[in-house]
Amino acid sequence: MRGPAALAALVLVLAGVRAAPPPSSHVASGPAETTSTEAPATFRGHKVLRVVPSVGKQVLGLRQYLHDHPKVSPWLEPSAPGRPVDLQVGPADADALKEYLAQEGLVATEMIVDLGRMVEEEQRGMIDAKRSNIDFGWDTYHTLDEIYKWLQNLAQKYPKEVSLVEGGRTYEGRTIIGVKIKSTDQQAPIAFVEAGIHAREWITPATATFLINEILTREDGEFRSAVRAYEWHIFPVTNPDGYVYTHTTNRLWRKSRSKYSYFCSGADLNRNWPFHWREAGASAVPCSETYAGVRAESEPETKAMRHYLDSLIATRTVLVYVSLHSYSQLLMFPWGWTSELTKTHDDLNSVAELAVKAAAKRHGTQFKFGAISKAIYPASGSTLDYAYDKGVKYPMVFELRDDGTYGFLLPREQIRPAAEETVDAICTIASEAGKRK
Ligand SMILES: [Zn+2]
């Protein structure tokens, strides 16, 4: 789609976002952002505790504890000795958790003392920012509607370069909208970027929209020649149902919004892809944050984005694939499903090393890097492993800011610096991939 056709399509798409009925009678609320009937979660009295297990036995113990206590919600899952575990806990369960941690010799620090107040302050800040600045920008977080309207305006403003693309439909009937930014070279390889697959990681859609804006407006020659050598396909919000839900009802929602169990909704869309599905680091328990879904591709969002990516790969070279997540400040590459190294490990490792150097140069932020299974923990059914298996040479996944102060509630003052350093790193990945292809 290009120009006016794209625009007309978007108007229909936006209309569809509001009008389409949910496909399942289990869904209590329709797709519009304001019609949720569920009372918003306040997180009053909730804390986030950080512990750093020092031996494998403590890691396994924490995993078992989380399995047995689904009300304790991991922000960072137990992974390996020396790596932090962040646990959100409500007032009713805090004493029992603290007792367990003390028994296991784990020293807990209070990373977030009053989660309810932080969520409230974030909401207040967004309202204030919107009152004083009506334009779309990177000084505050935005709703799905605001992001989609901004993308629509871009297609209007840059009709020759930008067209809207559609990934497909979500469980609740929303459209997954992205942009295609053309290169002057018709045969240019493709760089694919997806963000927001985990709903609460708000810094990621913000960074993806910032990247789009930089590609279209940034003047410096080195940046332009690196990014203009690609055709970009960028989807800022690949889990729109979840993202809307974080704005209307539960700020800390991670998964999709499908309904398979009476008690718990959603699957982890980054554990649902059809490659070594649910073999490692993915849960069969519907209430788990890493629930892999009833089967590979059980989620319409996965199916839609997988089809989109497959059709690109079938016709063009997809050289770069970037997946944006938060938090922990990591840059990683396949494999996730196994601890074995890929055949191109050294090459991927050296690109990642250069990319994290580029990120650090901007604001001094330090990212660690490595293969997913080594840097954090095994995770199967992820977008990145799928893309690599399909022949994408440079798939990279970021865990953006921070490394354990605000976590998912990264203050809006940090949106710009976080996005700037990430775009620098992505630019390095693109330029290195171009040299090495
Ligand atoms: Zn994530």
From TrEMBL:
Alphabetical GO biological process terms: proteolysis
Alphabetic keyword roster: Carboxypeptidase, Disulfide bond, Hydrolase, Metal-binding, Metalloprotease, Protease, Secreted, Signal, Zinc
Gene3D superfamilies named among the record's database cross-references: Metallocarboxypeptidase-like, Zn peptidases
Compartments reported by the entry: Secreted
Cofactors required: Zn(2+)
Active site (record annotation): 399
Main location (coarse class): secreted
Protein name: Peptidase M14 domain-containing protein
Signal peptide residue numbers: 1-19
Pfam families tied to this protein: Peptidase_M14 (PF00246), Propep_M14 (PF02244)
Functional description taken from the UniProt entry: Involved in the digestion of the blood meal.
Similarity-based family: Belongs to the peptidase M14 family.
Originating organism: Megalurothrips usitatus
One GO MF term attached to the UniProt entry: metallocarboxypeptidase activity
Domain (Peptidase M14): residue spans on this chain: 140-433
